[in-house]
Specification:
Elements: H1 4-17, H2 25-28, H3 30-41, H4 49-53, E1 56-58, E2 65-76, E3 82-92, E4 96-98, H5 100-111, E5 114-115, H6 117-131, E6 136-145, H7 146-149, E7 160-167, H8 173-184
Parallel strand pairs: 2-5
Antiparallel strand pairs: 1-4, 2-3, 3-6, 6-7
Helix pairs in contact: 1-3, 5-6
This protein binds guanosine-5'-triphosphate (GTP) and zinc ion.
Pathway: Cofactor biosynthesis; 7,8-dihydroneopterin triphosphate biosynthesis; 7,8-dihydroneopterin triphosphate from GTP: step 1/1
Catalytic activity: GTP + H2O = 7,8-dihydroneopterin 3'-triphosphate + formate + H(+)
Family: Belongs to the GTP cyclohydrolase I family.
Length: about 180
Amino acid sequence: MIDEKKIEAGIRLLLEGIGEDLERPGLKDTPHRIANMYKEIYGGLGADASVHLGKTFPAINNELVLEKDITFYSTCEHHLLPFYGKAHIAYIPDDKVVGLSKLARTVDVFARRPQIQEQMTAQIGDAIMEHLKPKGVMVILQAEHMCMTMRGIKKPGSQTMTYICRGAFENNPELQQMVFQMVKS
Ligand SMILES: Nc1nc2c(ncn2[C@@H]2O[C@H](COP(=O)(O)OP(=O)(O)OP(=O)(O)O)[C@@H](O)[C@H]2O)c(=O)[nH]1
Ligand SMILES: [Zn+2]
């Protein structure tokens, strides 16, 4: 559960730590604003993907479904700086499908917490396997990490790609290639 008072106290300390004047007008409401913002951007911590993935419909057929270019914003757990980009999710139904928005909602459940991209990729795929129980799922994430661009090594434009395969996609390079092609097209 997100504790707004603790976040506000933490932000006040942080501002003091960098030598800022907490009483100047521009900063007076900042601790409160950030607490509100964290409720949104870390809202995934209290969220449960099964709520979204548990609402299914009978499949018309069991052909592959790809939802691509799902924009997401997350924060890296090492620096609490944003990483953001696109998620692509392919799955092969086993007589059940979910509404397409539920795939995007599942991405947000795992994006809105301090994260590591590899872990987020796996969590999305594993949640889909567990709750929708398809024949297989493949998740691809492509993101820019601000801890790589605005500080440290400073390599703007560098992109991190991660993917996982579960079920029918595992050990099936042809199927994986087909998804990569569909994502590129
Ligand atoms: N594998 C992986 N690494 C990440 C992710 N987000 C951030 N990192 C990396 O986490 C590492 C943390 O390294 P540290 O050496 O502990 O921290 P640092 O001194 O701030 O590292 P630099 O970024 O190299 O300055 C950095 O190399 C980041 O690029 C992620 O999602 N996945
Ligand atoms: Zn980072």
